């Protein structure tokens, strides 16, 4: 069976989300893909190279539609932002694997590390833009720093168990808009 980088990324993503950096091994990956380990080594020399390449691809896909989000109605922007954060929750968990890669190995792939850094900065820029628009449209309080809003979103998203549940997303939205106090 001929495998592609995308096949390897998909299987790696699953293993990383199950057990993190240490759980991903070429032995498990070859078993999941029903290929030999040498077949994997033709694509990637090391697990770290694989993770960096996969994260570069993940961030590219993740960032593709962000420019289209800006300029929506306030509640639409909030819905879009919540859904983007739900999608980012997995990407964020995957990014943790990059930090497990030792310094010397990361230095072997400066282009990939730079691309990941730029992608993260681009994501932060779009988030700031969306939050600033939300502040202009009075969706968010102006006096709350953007970083706090982002952290609140990230923590709220981790409470959502069923990402397809409109009800759970609505609860998060209500908490964001109204807090937990009675009004």
TrEMBL record:
Domain HTH tetR-type residues, every copy: 2-62
Gene Ontology molecular functions: DNA-binding transcription factor activity; transcription cis-regulatory region binding
Keywords: DNA-binding, Transcription, Transcription regulation
One matching Pfam family: TetR_N
InterPro entries named in the record: Homeodomain-like_sf (IPR009057), HTH-type_TetR-like_transc_reg (IPR050109), HTH_TetR (IPR001647), Tet_transcr_reg_TetR-rel_C_sf (IPR036271)
Signal peptide, first to last residue: none
Known DNA-binding region: 25-44
Keyword Amino-acid biosynthesis: no
PANTHER family (UniProt xref): HTH-TYPE TRANSCRIPTIONAL REGULATOR BETI, HTH-TYPE TRANSCRIPTIONAL REGULATOR RUTR
Name of the protein in its database record: TetR/AcrR family transcriptional regulator
């Amino acid at each position: 069976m001929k495998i592609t980088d995308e096949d390897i990324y998909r299987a790696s993503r699953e293993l990383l989300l199950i057990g993190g950096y240490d759980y991903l091994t070429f032995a498990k990956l070859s078993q999941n893909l029903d290929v030999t380990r040498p077949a994997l080594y033709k694509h990637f020399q090391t697990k770290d190279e694989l993770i960096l390449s996969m994260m570069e691809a993940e961030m590219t896909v993740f960032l593709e539609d962000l420019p289209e989000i800006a300029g929506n109605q306030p509640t639409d922007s909030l819905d879009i932002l919540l859904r983007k954060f739900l999608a980012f929750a997995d990407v964020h968990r995957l990014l943790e694997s990059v930090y497990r890669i030792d310094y010397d190995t990361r230095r072997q792939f400066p282009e990939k590390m730079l691309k990941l850094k730029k992608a993260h900065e681009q994501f932060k820029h779009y988030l700031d833009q969306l939050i600033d628009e939300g502040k202009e449209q009075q969706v968010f309080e102006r006096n709350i720093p953007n970083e706090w809003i982002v952290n609140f979103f990230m923590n709220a998203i981790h409470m959502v168990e069923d990402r397809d549940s409109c009800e759970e997303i609505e609860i998060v939205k209500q908490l964001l808009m109204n807090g937990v106090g009675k009004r």
